[in-house]
Amino acid sequence: MPDDKNTPRDTSASTKAGASTKTGAGPRVRTIPDGDNRPRLVCPDCDYIQYENPLIVVGAVASWEGKILLCRRAIEPRKGYWTMPAGYLELNEAAAHGAVRETREEACAEIEIDALLAVYNIPRISQVQLIYRATLVSPDCAPGEESEEVALFDWDRIPWDDLAFPSVIWALNHYDEVRDQAVFAARTNALDNAWGEISRD
Amino acid sequence: MPDDKNTPRDTSASTKAGASTKTGAGPRVRTIPDGDNRPRLVCPDCDYIQYENPLIVVGAVASWEGKILLCRRAIEPRKGYWTMPAGYLELNEAAAHGAVRETREEACAEIEIDALLAVYNIPRISQVQLIYRATLVSPDCAPGEESEEVALFDWDRIPWDDLAFPSVIWALNHYDEVRDQAVFAARTNALDNAWGEISRD
């Protein structure tokens, strides 16, 4: 899904879940392994089973004196559009650590995490996003490798029409909603707000 | 890590991340692929790259008239010990849906999710746990395939000495902490509570 508009990184299924440089190699037959109850990708050459799991994206809505840090993407998908710093959680990394690292990598900025702002579910692409509220420790920021430009936006200057993904819009609105609250329940997107409905399906 | 005490399921790295029935087959050489910056497992036979990602565990602390639903594990790790219903999030599944499904599978119980109780990080085993607070829709429950026994415990009868994992203890204590609160910040474990400290590392 390299062109998926909900994917905050260019790390598509083919590059993140597994890839091979030899045509036809690797797990490629979908079948239910013995003792399992769901179809998995299996390599017909060596019987290796490729379990696929949802991916965790971590990110931060970070502010400096009321201004919001955004990055203009230098990579597909959504090259040229604006996003908060966010990306895939790495192995052996805590979620808040990952948000700090992504902000450092994409915006060369240092932040202090303040609260869990939101958990967004995008089941269509098997993604769970943990977005934190954070404060910049200084206004210093600069484009990292994956950004064309980074900037601190006054709230009324946020480029709403040029945001990269729905979850960027959700996160900015949720940030605004809890702006004056020290303690709040982590927000979620519409799917999960309907907890009464989904819990009985 | 099949014997890891922080793993709420028997779904260890070898069965969840990938497994092969042929000895030595599948991704097994750790090397940094071209264009990457971290070592990955590569299959020397076909060059297939096995990307490894953190896993998401979802679960619920569910109550019925003040009693807490717990399951005694029928499987390793920690067979015979008690846990809240929890397990790995599946592909194309929202986190709250997963908590409902796990409760159905492990305790044959129906719940309604009320709030995100906690996000626990266990970076040593690359696990992020999303634990919800929930209410049973009836006191009906019964052991699912992975449970030897399920029961509704009065708070002062919780088998603290026989809980399966640290995160079960964390979740129960956090449940108690926010028992009377409709709105609260999702809890986390010690690592992430030290946000001021970890955000600058």
Helix content of chain A: 10-25%
Mean pLDDT of chain A: 85
What is the tally of helical segments of chain A? 5
Which secondary-structure class do the elements of chain A indicate?
A: alpha+beta
Outline the low-pLDDT stretches of chain A. Answer: 1-17, 192-201
Radius of gyration of chain A: 19 Å
For the largest interface, the chains and their residue counts are: A-B, 65 and 65 residues
Largest sheet of chain A: 8 strands, mixed
Distance between the termini of chain A: 27 Å
Compact overview of the structure:
The structure is a homodimer of 201-residue chains. Chain A contains five helices and eleven strands; from the N terminus they run H-E-E-E-E-E-E-E-H-E-E-E-H-E-H-H.
What does this structure look like?
Two copies of one chain form a homodimer. The first copy, chain A, is of the alpha+beta class. Chain A has helices at residues 13-16, 95-107, 166-177, 190-193, 195-198; strands at residues 29-31, 40-42, 49-50, 55-64, 67-73, 82-83, 86-88, 111-122, 127-136, 147-153, 187-188. In chain A, strands 4, 5, 6, 7, 8, 9, 10 and 11 form an eight-stranded mixed sheet that branches. In chain A, strands 1-2-3 form a three-stranded antiparallel sheet, with no helix packed on it. The longest helix of chain A is centred in the middle third of the chain and has 13 residues, at 95-107. The interface between A and B is large, with 65 and 65 residues.
